[in-house]
């Protein structure tokens, strides 16, 4: 048995893994699987999606959508491996600082700052865990390779004593509405999930929604409390797609 890895994964990780475990490259992503795939002792499948910290901070919605597709592929266990280091910036609620190792130096230097709440990031990871996606965090690609080997070897053990638990229960993933997703994906539109659902419930489709007047959109009731979308938000949405 071996660890399967996608053809686009770094060679450095492959070389480190194969010192302990056989590896085989194949087009996993092209077939709807995560970056790494292997079998447990009972032949259940385990897939590992590797993301660097900047990929998470730069596009949590994109990562979540990718994980949703991978959860739908029938693999019994899914792990999100986050590679890299970040921390909150003191005094700023919506700012997270990444760190990276300086080239050819044994020191850490600041990376990019993202307009992402650190507490929001942690809450997002907690929600993924509740949805059945195990979160594993590593420092760099060396630690990633060691972690993948450890996960593989651990999966070959028939008996587990840690909390008497092996495969995490998964919640049922609700089928998403592509019209809602498209509204949420409009850059600068200011439309979150609750607003997008309310608009699609009222107008039915993405196309029909964005062709309404701002005044009509503004009257849309949002959530159980019945608060209206508002004219400012409606105008912002239309402006973001080029309508004045």
Structure description:
Helices cover 37% and strands 22% of the residues. By secondary structure, the chain is of the alpha/beta class. The chain folds into 2 domains: 3-83 and 122-164, Rossmann fold (3-Layer(aba) Sandwich), CATH 3.40.50.10130; 178-240, Crossover junction endonuclease EME1, DNA-binding domain (DNA polymerase, domain 1, Orthogonal Bundle), CATH 1.10.150.670. The chain is globular, with a radius of gyration of 21 Å. The termini are far apart. 23% of the residues are buried. The mean pLDDT is 88.
Name its key features.
single chain; 244 residues; alpha/beta; Rossmann fold; DNA polymerase, domain 1; 2 domains; 6-stranded mixed beta sheet; 3-stranded antiparallel beta sheet; 10 helices
Give the tally of β-strands: 11
Give the strand content: 15-25%
CATH fold annotation of the largest domain: Rossmann fold
Low-confidence stretches: none
Percent range of helical residues: 25-40%
- The DSSP helix count reads 10
Question: What is the 3D form?
Answer: globular
Structural class: alpha/beta
CATH architecture of the largest domain: 3-Layer(aba) Sandwich
Total number of distinct structural domains: 2
Strand order of the largest sheet: 2-1-3-4-5-9
Average pLDDT score:
88
Along the chain, the helix and strand elements come as EHEEEHHEEEEHEHHHHHEEH
CATH class category name of the largest domain: Alpha Beta
The largest pleated sheet is described as: 6 strands, mixed
CA distance, first residue to last residue: 60 Å
